[in-house]
Design a protein that fits this description.
23% strand; globular; alpha/beta; single chain; seven-stranded mixed sheet; Rossmann fold
Length: 238
């Protein structure tokens, strides 16, 4: 059953966990690393498939990792900096709305390549340029965009999800472009799934309707440069 274009962004969010679970189930004794999880790992320990040998939660902030529930393995390091201690240790690496916040997307993906074991897979969900809200978020001052988020996405702030500065470095939904960026890093395969639409006009009925029409046209003609979100999946040679 096809999903209405106005729900594409929700499909990206809701389907991501199942996407990762399927990758976990596809290989035995998989060592999993969740990047940038902070104090909220995506998976509860009792949700993990029996194929998972270890599930490690990462963040660069030790204070956040100290709040992770008991039972999780943790790894405190900046994936855009020195990750040598973790090279080759993981079979599956994933992140959820992290990549847009790193200043150097190539350095991020290079380190992900290095911390993957041979044959390992990485997958990331992130917003993409040149969707209009994210272009605005990139070019306006942080104080201004924070006020906009408080106005249009108040529930996000109330739920305790802070707004971090976003850079969108190498955050694209074009598979051709992402292959051009990432294959030279050594990845054997790069796949991208684009999603259209976003929730930022939901409180403005007329603008929301217009936005849905535009998103529908972009989806129909596969205008990846105007997609709003993407799954970017990479694989290291075995």
């Amino acid at each position: 059953m096809s999903v209405p274009v106005q729900m594409h962004h929700q499909q990206a969010r809701d389907g991501y966990k199942n996407e990762i679970r399927a990758l976990m189930e596809a290989r035995p004794n998989v060592r999993v690393l969740e990047l940038g999880a902070g104090r909220w790992p995506m998976f509860a320990l009792d949700e993990l498939p029996s194929t998972v040998a270890s599930y490690t939660v990462n963040d660069l902030d030790p204070a956040l990792l100290s709040q992770v529930p008991k039972g999780y393995e943790t790894a405190c390091f900046d994936v855009t900096s020195d990750a040598h201690d973790f090279y080759g240790k993981y079979d599956l690496v994933f992140s959820h709305f992290l990549v847009e916040h790193v200043r150097d997307g190539i350095k991020f993906h290079r380190n992900v390549f290095n911390i993957l074991a041979p044959g390992g897979v990485a997958i990331h969900l992130h917003p993409t340029l040149f969707s209009f809200p994210f272009v605005i978020n990139k070019i306006l001052p942080e104080q201004t965009t924070h006020s906009i988020v408080k106005l249009f996405r108040r529930k996000r702030i109330e739920r305790g999800y802070p707004k971090f500065p976003a850079h969108y470095s190498y955050c694209r939904a074009s598979e051709t472009k992402m292959r051009g960026y990432l294959l030279p890093l050594g990845f054997e395969d790069v796949r991208v799934r684009a999603f259209y639409g976003h929730p930022y006009y939901d409180n403005i009925p007329v603008v929301k309707q217009l936005g849905n029409i535009i998103a529908g046209v972009c989806a129909r003609y596969n205008l990846e440069s105007l997609a709003s979100y993407a799954y970017v999946r990479t694989q290291k040679r075995a």
